[in-house]
Amino acid sequence: MASSVAANCVATSRSRLLRPAATLWQPYRAEKSTALLTRRSTVSLAVSLVGQKHVADFFQQKNELASCIPAITNTRREALRRYAIVAEAQKAEYIWLDGQEGLKGFRFNEIRTKTRCLQKALPVGSSEFPDWSFDGSSTGQMDQGNNSDCILKPVFSCPDPIRGGNSVLVLCEVLSPEGTPHRTNQRRLLADLLTDEIQAQDSWFGFEQEYTLFARDGHPYGWPPAGYPAPQGPFYCGVGLEAVYGRQFVEAHFDACVKAGLKISGINAEVMPGQWEFQIGPTGPLEMGDHVMVARYLLHRLGEDFGVIATFDPKPIQGDWNGAGAHTNFSTKAMREEGGMVEIMKAIEKLSKTHKEHIAEYGHGNEKRLTGKHETASMDTFRAGVADRGASIRIPLPVSLANKGYLEDRRPAANVNPYVVARMLIQSTLLN
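RE: above sequence
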C-alpha cells in the first residue's frame, strides 16, 4: 500500500505537491501548510517541511535536492512516511550588466539575471555552461525590437549560496548579435589589455565597495522618521544599537559571499549611519572585477528578502554627510618587493598625468562626492600623500614604513565599474 501511495506522490504535478489535497494534509497543522506558500530559501523550506532536527538529513547528499513528501496510509494511526524525490537538474542564475549603473536613480542598479535549468548538472568553474541570450531592447542595450537578441557568454561561476544545493551563479559577458563584445562589455576591454607582458607585472587589486542602505520607501535605513541621526562620528566601525544600522543584513551578505567562494576580505560600518563597506581582494584584475560583480548581485538579491535597497550612489544624502566611494588598492610585483616605494612613486607620477581621464571614467555623479570635503580630494586637483585620506592617491602608513607595498586610489565612486578601474590603472602605470 505504501509503495502505491509513493508512486502516486511522485506522479503528482508540482502545483499538487505544493498544495496537496486536503485528505493528504489532515495530520498537518495549518501553519505547516501555509509556510510552503511563502518565498523562502532552500534551508527554510526544509525546516518547514520536515522540522529542524531533520534538516541535516535533508541535505546529506551533495548535489542533490531532496523534497520530502508525506504519504498517508489508510488509517491515521499509522506512522507518517516520507518519500524523497531526487532532482538531478541544476539551477543556474545567469548574471549580466546592462551598463547603466548610476543612470537610473538610487533605487535601481545595472544587474540583470534570469535562471536556466540545466538537466545535467555542471561543476562550478566548468567551461561548458552554455551561451544564452536575452532581449536587449528591454534592457536598453539594443535599439531595435525586431533584432534585439544579445548573447550571454559565461565567464565565471560559483556556488549559489541562496538557493544552495548544486545551484550556481554564472556571470556573463554581453555580446552583440554578431558575436562581438557589446558596447557595455567593459570586462572584455580589460581582458584584451592583459597581454603576456602586462601579466608578467603580476598586478594585484583590492576593491573597497561602499554602499548605503535605504528602506523600501526611500528613507535612509535606520534613520529617524523625521529629522536626522546624530552627527557623524560615532558610526564608523561602531558597535551598538544607536551606532549601527542594518548589521543583520550586512552579516547575511558577508556569509553569502564566503559561501560563494568569493575573495571577500572584510566588512565594516562606514562614517555615515546606514553606510557600509565590503572589500574584495587582493587578487588579479579580472578576478577582482568578477568577484565584485557577484558580490553586488548578492547584495541586491538579499535586499529583496530583507526589504532594503543597497545603493552605490556616490552622494546619496546631501549635506554634511560622507559620500560613498570604491577606494582601489593597486600594486605590482615590483612595488611589493624590497625598496618598492620607488616604483610606487613612479606610478603616482604617471597617474598625475592622466587624472582627467580617470575622473571621466570613475563613476556617474562623482562630482557631488569629490569636493575636497568629507575625506576626498577635489576632482579638479591631483595630490598624493602618506596616510592622507584627503588625497587623490593615499600611501598607507604601513606601506611607507615598510618602504614597499601598494597605493590606494581614492577617486573612484561607489558606482564605478570595477573592470574600468583596473583597466585605467594598468593603462596609466604599465603602458604609458
